[in-house]
Amino acid sequence: MIGYISRRLFTAVFMLLAIAFVTIALFFGASRDPARAMCGKPCPADTLAKVSAYMQTDKGVLWQYVEFVKGLFVGRTYGSGSQQVHCVAPCFGYSFPNQSDVTTLIVERLPVTLSLTFGAAVLCLLVGVGLGAASAIRKGGLIDRFSAGFAMFGLAVPTFLVGLLVVQVFGFMLNALPYSGFVPISESPWEWAWHLIGPWMVLSIILAAGYIRVTRTQLLGELSSDHLVAMTARGASPRRVNAHAVRGVMIPIVAMFALDVAALLGGSVIAEKVFSLHCLGDLLLAGVNESDLSLVVGVTLFSAFLIIIGNLLADMLMPLLDPRIRRA
Question: Which of 275, 257, 15 is closest to 160 using CA atoms?
Answer without folding.
Answer: 275
